[in-house]
Each structure stands twice: as C-alpha cells, then as structure tokens.
Specification:
Blueprint lengths: L3 H6 L1 H10 L6 H37 L5 H33 L19 E6 L12 H8 L2 E2 H8 L5 E2 L1 H20 L4 E2 L5 E2 L1 H6 L11 E2 L5 E2 L4 H5 L6 E3 L5 E10 L18 E11 L4 H19 L3 E5 L11 E9 L4 E10 L3 H6 L2 E3 L7 E2 L1 E9 H11 L7 E2 L13 E2 L5
Parallel strand pairs: 4-9, 8-14
Antiparallel strand pairs: 1-11, 2-3, 5-7, 6-7, 9-10, 10-16, 11-12, 12-13, 13-16, 14-15, 17-18
Helix pairs in contact: 3-4, 5-12, 7-12
Length: 426
C-alpha cells in the first residue's frame, strides 16, 4: 500500500518504479481517484459546517421565543445531504484504497531490472557440490525406494500434491524443524512463536495475500483462511498498534504447516515434494525501524544461510530481479540449494524487506522516545528454512549407491544418534 500524498508530490518517480515492475503509468488514475475522494470529503465537511450554523440559529430563535420551523426544515434537508455526501466520500475512499491495494511494492534502487529469473544476480556460492560414482537420483525415487515416502496413499485420502512420510523420514522432518528453531532462538536471538494457522481477511490483506492472491489460498466455510506461511500471523502481531521504538527490532520465528492451492502451478513439479498443498516451514519475521531494515535483511539472510552451512548443503544466494520479486517485497534474496538429482539449484528460502508496504496496510506504527508523531514500521520475512525442501536436499546430497542416506552430523542429536538411514530391507 502506498501514501497517496507521496504519489501526488512525486508522480513521475512512482511511475518509474511501476515501470521497473513491468507496469504502465499508474499515478494519473490514482491522483484522479484521490481528487474525487477529497472533493467528496470537502463537500461533506461544508455541509457539516452549514448544519452547525443552522443548529446555532435554531437555539437563538427558540431562546427569543421566535418560530424556528423554517430553520428546522432547512436543517433536516442538510442532514440528509450530509449523509449522502459522507456515503459518497466513503465510496470514493474505498475506490482509491482498492486501486492502491492492487499494486506491488516499489523495488529498491539496488534491485536488478529484468523480466524474470534470468535477470537475477548471483551474490555468493557456498559449499562444494557433491560428486558421485553413480547417477544421483531425485528425492522421490530415494524416498520411495526407502519405503518411507508414499504419494499413492496420500493421494487416496487427499488427492494430488500431498505426501505421507513415515519412519526415519517423518522423524527427519520433525528433527529439521527442531534443529532450525533451536539455532534461530539460541544463537540468532529470535523469539519462538506458536501462532494460529487460521486467520481472518484483515490479516491476509495486511501482508498482501488479499485481494490479489485469493485463488492461491484455502478458505474455510466460516470465512477464515489457512495460512500460506507463518509470515501472515507473525507480521500481524503488530497490526493496528503503536510499538515502542525501544522494543525494535522484534525478531520472531515459528514452525507451522503452510497451505497453498498452487492454482498457478499446473504442470510444475508434479512429482515429489517440491510443490505441495501442505508443507512444514520455519518462518522468520522481523519488525524494525526504517533506518535498520536493510541491515536486518542482511542479518535474516545470514540466519537462513547458516542452517544450510550447518547441514553441509551447497547453495548459492541471488538477488531477485524486479520481474521475479514477490508482490510485497522491495528487495529479496533467494537462497537456492543444490539438488544433484535435478542437477540444478532450487529455492529453499526467500528473505524480503517489505519496507513500510505491509505496515501501511495493517496500520503498524512505532513512536520514538520523545517524539509526538508516529512512523510506520518496516517488516521483513524469510524462510528459515522450508523444512520439506531441506529434507529433499539432504536425501539428494547425502544419498549412497546402495540407496541408503547419510544423516548430516548436525542433525544426528535430533534423531537419536542415527547416522544412516538404511536402504529398504537393509
């Protein structure tokens, strides 16, 4: 969401930012809607002023014992007119808010321009890709051969894009989530939260999922939404309140199930666990001041990268281009882990600085000590990490020729000291 006053004052800058996002000029139409809104509000205020004047005249006439019926008739007419003007102002405001809510965040100056992922800029490469004396398999081949990853049974009860993990793989998913949370809370200083997995319209609007991405979500019959990521409830912790600046930055972490309809993913990653309707993710959210949000983005990205370093998984980190960046982000780092079975890097975390884009939508502010005016906070979010995709990366990077899978050293204490998941029947 944007400040319409800034758009009025800097329309060309706003349109240049929208152009970088692949959109045409927007400021002229928005300014016209704003003028309509302000005109309606002025009319309502003028009528209110007239009503106040008439009210005083009625009081004076009655005090003098004079007939006030004519003034009362005029006041009744202005009351109806005021109600009509107020409705017009509300409708104009809603029309402007709706138009603003459809537009993506403006990209930061250092984000590379480009239409899609081909313009992403690689920042760093970490870790050596493993070498094999056999052809590495994809995770679903490994998991099914172990007898611990079952898509067929999941499909019978739930349909496509679900999986049933059992035995050591179910244990590994739980272990990974615990390992990530322990790392983030004990070493990275994040506060662990166990948030609701069902939220209302306002929460989804605040983080930018609504109204634009409703088709990508699951909604219950009573109007609540299943969260697509813990970013939604974690960020909404500060919705509608004024935060004490001395409590910033606030850094949160949560492990939740996430639910996505994958409406736009037809034909993509139809096999395996890469793209599921239900998956486990450890999410990080930071609420900061505007002055520190860029540093917080670097810090958050480092926290996510550290998980992969501890697990010995090779990855690279890229800055997303303007055409590949998410709706609410002004700058995003994608961390992509190496998957030998696919012979490519795949996203395992996105860490984004949203600036005040979400804060404006959810009216999240802070007040500095000694200051009278409030400011909008900045919000950041990032996966720390996607648990299922981390499991996939372990299966593919630690697979052995006999079908067994080595458990990374850092994960063994969380798996009862298990060092190797034996091949099925082994």
């Amino acid at each position: 969401m944007f400040d319409i006053k800034r758009i009025r004052e800097n329309p060309d800058d706003f349109d240049r930012g929208m152009k970088r996002r692949g959109l045409g000029p927007q400021s002229k139409a928005l300014i016209a809607l704003d003028a309509k809104r302000r005109e309606a509000q002025t009319k309502a205020q003028d009528i209110q002023t007239e009503r106040n004047k008439l009210s005083k005249e009625i009081g004076v006439a009655k005090a003098r014992g004079e007939d006030a019926s004519a003034i009362l008739d005029e006041a009744a007419k202005t009351k109806a007119a005021e109600g009509e003007a107020e409705r017009a102002a509300e409708e104009a405001s809603a029309e402007l808010d709706w138009a603003l809510a459809q537009l993506p965040n403006l990209p930061a100056a250092d984000v590379p321009d480009g239409p899609d992922e081909t313009a992403n800029r690689e920042e760093r490469v970490v870790g050596d890709k493993p070498t094999f004396d056999f052809t590495p398999k994809e995770h679903f081949n490994i998991g099914e051969a172990l007898g611990l990853m079952d898509f067929e049974t999941a499909a019978r009860m739930s349909g496509a894009r679900f999986v049933l993990l059992s035995g050591a793989l179910a244990h590994m998913e739980r272990a990974l989530a615990n390992f990530m949370l322990d790392l983030h809370t004990t070493e990275h200083g994040l506060i662990e939260v166990n948030p609701p997995a069902l939220v209302n319209d306002a929460a989804m609007f605040g983080t930018g999922q609504l109204p634009k991405f409703g088709d990508d979500l699951f909604r219950t019959e009573d109007g609540l939404w299943l969260i697509p990521t813990a970013e939604v409830p974690l960020t909404n912790i500060v919705a509608g309140i004024v935060v004490d600046a001395n409590t910033l930055p606030r850094r949160y972490a949560a492990m939740t199930w996430c639910f996505r309809s994958e409406a736009g993913a037809a034909g993509k990653d139809t096999r395996g666990m890469i793209r599921q309707h239900q998956f486990t993710k450890v999410e990080m959210v930071t609420i900061s001041t505007p002055e520190t949000s860029n540093d917080e983005l670097e810090r958050m990205t480092g926290c996510a990268e550290e998980v992969l370093k501890r697990l010995g998984l090779p990855f690279h980190t890229v800055v997303l281009s303007t055409g590949d960046m998410g709706f609410g982000a002004q700058k995003t780092y994608d961390i992509e882990v190496w998957l030998p079975g696919q012979d490519k890097y795949r996203e395992i975390s996105s860490c984004s600085n949203c600036g005040d884009f979400q804060a404006r939508r959810m009216k999240a502010r802070f007040k500095a000590e000694g200051e009278k005016k409030t400011q909008f906070v900045h919000t950041l979010n990032g996966s720390g990490l996607a648990v299922g995709r981390t499991l996939i990366a372990i299966l593919e990077n630690y697979q052995q020729a006999d079908g067994s899978v080595v458990v990374p050293d850092a994960l063994r204490p969380y798996m009862g000291g298990l060092e190797v998941i034996p091949a099925h029947g082994g």
